[in-house]
Every structure is written in structure tokens, then in C-alpha cells.
Amino acid sequence: MSASAKKKLRKEQSTSQMTEKQLNEQKEAKKLKIYTTVFVVAIAAVLVAGLVFAGMNIYNKSGIVEKNMVAATINDEELNSVQLSYYYVDTVNANLSQWSNTYGESLSLFLNLMGIDPTLPLSEQSYNEEITWADYFIESALEQAKSEYMLAAAAEAEGFALSETELQAVENTISTVSMYAMLYGYNDLGTYLKANYGPGADEASYRAYQEKSVLAASYYEAHQNDLVIDDAAIREYEDGRYDEFSSYSFATYHLGYKDYLTGGTEAEDGTMVYTAEEEDAARAAAKADAELLAQATTVEELDKAIAALAINEGSLTASSSVFNNSLYSTISTIYRDWLTDHSRKDGDCEAIAYESVVTDEAGNESTVVNDYYTVMFLGSKNNETKMANVRHILVNFQGGTTDDLGNTTYSDEEKATAKAAAEEILAEMTADGTVTEEEFSDMAINKSADTGSASTGGLFENVTPEDGVYVDEFRDWAMDPTRAAGDVDIIETVYGYHIMYYVGDAEMNYRDYMISEAIRSDRMTEWYDGVVAGAVATVMDSSRLNKDIVLNVA
Questions:
Q1: pTM for the whole thing?
Q2: What is the H or E stretch that residue 395 is in?
Q3: Is-contact 156 531, C-beta < 8 A?
């Protein structure tokens, strides 16, 4: 019963009691008539209030408000609450999935560092001083919507349409979501969509949302595939950027002046306060040690000198950090220019100061050196090495024993079983003495346990010597300089046994591939900005979105 209905009922009841007192001496028939009238009025009030409450509840759940409310605009196009909710909820889920995949068991720690409590609604947690985490995700969702709406509009303007395969992909998505609806106990897809995205969500609007998303992605990919990057463009782009596509090997050790501070006075809050003279002495000591280390000519000499430093007395782990074949973009700007100097020779070592800008109480800025890096050059590569195209068939290990940390190990017998299965598949393919790429591809489609590549016949293109996507054994086999088209072999990795097939060298070497990808990225960014960047997206009314989402962290 609503508050107004209860108030009205109390008023009617009060009137009833007063009337009874005032008419106590009247005839029983008249008193009965009054009682009956008051009772009927009171009951009627209760019934009317109940009907209004039920009607409002049905209205609120109908989705009529959500479908007719302008939640956001993208230029002149209006998005209702249902349309924005699809982007909003999926943005939250996508971020949570990405964080979970990246941080795994450390997800809770990561969320804590981000200031997110997974037990509280997003609307009750501040992203910054101005907005909540719910607001942040709504803004992120609108940016995604802006991108897709503008790309889809450009596609339609050009007459670009989804292929039959892409339309089928949308239907497959609808079927998959419908399957989840059944698994989670919902009567139909519509009920499941309403539960996840709110009132107003239904199959028709969800299909339209999926189609727009696929159209935008397909249009973007088609434009990217149409880019022609020839050798002349690669050489022109490389001019003046030669170092950016090379790799460097080096060792480095960091010395901070705070490790050399002595003396000091303890403040009331327990912190140590040092005079300017004490800090300058610490900086000088750090510089002296950095220059001492720079006299080394090998990593062994450098590590020996590091271990001998007074600040490392008693340490069993003090040593340099060695980096092999690091790409230019991954090297610290503190010492990158020194490393990439073309006069650099193997064994060169240097103490490099890192300058910091500090501001005093009066607001005056000055430059100080608080850190030193001793860096040793160990070599460089121009990356003019081949890339490989390979196919594989994975035979997983079965069984295994998992420890408390989630690490799974397999017995010799379990490994032998997987190897025997791999050998059987290879023997089947090579029964007539050879195996063609087409035969291998067909077998991968039917036999490979790697679901990510099975549909393409186990194909991996442009495998690079520095590619961290592949496990070492896989990459090393593909990068073997003696490898020839048609080579077949079985190798073991942590995932099981891989039947490998060498398709052949890729068209480009690794260096030219990196340059072409940089060109492609620059051109796509310019094109994308031309399509999307000028659009104006504005949140109008987000009140019907579920801002009280609680992150589902197991």
C-alpha cells in the first residue's frame, strides 16, 4: 500500500471514530448506516491505491519509459535508454573481463588499487572528485557508441553492407545468448535481456545493436585491408626513423640517492628530515658509485662491482638487469639516446644521470639529479630477419595434477599418451610419404585441440622472432633459419604436443613488417579521426540506466 493510501485510510478511520462518539445516542439503524458508509469508503480508497500502485509497477517494468527517453545524442541522432544500456552494461562487462584476464588471481588487489569495492554498487563509488564509477562507464560506453554509430553511418552512406557470413555471425550471437538464457533458467531471450539490460530490452533492439556493431567493425576492417603499402612507402617512412625499428640488448643498474642518505633528524610524524648538505652528499655518493660501475666492460664485471658496493653489503641478489633484443619503443627515454648512438660498441658502459624538476615552498622550480643509471651496451639488431607462416595441430595433455597455486603438471605416462596420439595423426597424414598443406589444413580443422586456430587449418602467419604470443619452442621451430616449406615435425610445449607444418617464409622481413604496421596505424588513425573525431556525443538523461551494478568478482 502506498504512503498516501495509508494516510487516507488513517484519516477515514479517525473520522469513523469521531462519528461514533458524536452519534452514540442516535438510533441503531442510523449508526449502522454511517458505519457501513465509512467502511465502504475506506475499502474503496485501499483498492484504488492498490490498483494505482500495481499499475505503476507494470508501467515501470514495461520499458515504455526507457524506449521513449532520450538518454544520449550523437550529433543529431538520439539514443534511448535501452540503446545506451546495451553499450553501458557491455562496457562494464568487457572491462571486468579484460581486468580478470590480465590480473587473474590478483584481480581483487587491482580493483582495490583502482579504488573499486566489488561488493558495492558502482553508483556509490567515486572515480574522481566529480563522477562515480557508474558515470565513468556510461561515458566510456557513449564513446564506444559514438565510434560505432559514426562508422556505421559512413558505411551505409557508401552502400557498404554486411555479408551473408556477417549476418549469420549476428544470428549466431543471438542463438548463443538465447542458449545462455535457457541455461540460467529464463523462459525466453527477451526475459534474459530485460534482466541484464533493463526494461525495454528485447530481441529486436538487441539484434539491431549487434548488427550496428558488426557493420562498424566490418567497415573499419575493410578499409584497413584496402590500404596499399608498397616498398617505396616503407623506405620513405623509414627515412629518419631507422633506430625505431631496431632492437637493442643492454644491462642496466639503478642507483637512487636515498640509498646513500645518512644523518637526518626524526620529525614529529616519525619521518626523517635531511639537510641540504646531507642530500647533496648522498647524491655525490650515488654518482661516484655509478661512475665506478661504468668502468666494467662485461656483464660479469658489472655484477661483481654491484655486489661489492657498500649499499649492497649482505645482499645475495644485487645484480644488473639484462634486456635482450628490446625494441626501441620499449626502452626508457632516460638512456635510449645513449643506447641508440650509432658509434656505440659492445661493452660500452656509462653512468647516466636522471634529472628531476622540484618545486620549493616559494614555488620556485629547480633541477636536481636524484637517480643514476649505469648502462652497458650489449649489441643491436636491424631486425631484417625472416618471418614465418606455419600451421599446427595441437594434441593436449590429458589428466594432470593441479597444486594449490593452480599449476598443473603431467606425468610421463600422460605425456607419452599425448605424444603417441600426435604421432598417430602425423602417420595418418604421411601414409603415402608426403603431406600437402591442404591435407594438413583439413586435419587441423578436424583434429586440433587449439580451438582458436582450428577453423583456419591451424594457420599462423607472420610469426616474428620477438613475438611473445608464442611459447619459445613453437617460435624457435618456426624461426629456425634452416626451415624449408613443407617441413613437418612434432614438438613439445607446456600445452601438449604440436604437429608443425612450415608453410614458408612470409613476404616481408620483420623490419619491413613493423614499418608497414606503423604506416597502417598512422593512416588508419587519420582516416578514423576523419570519420569519428568530429562527432559530438552527449549524455542527456541516464536516470533509467542501472547505475547500481555490482561487479561480479568470484
A1: 0.73
A2: strand 386-396
A3: no
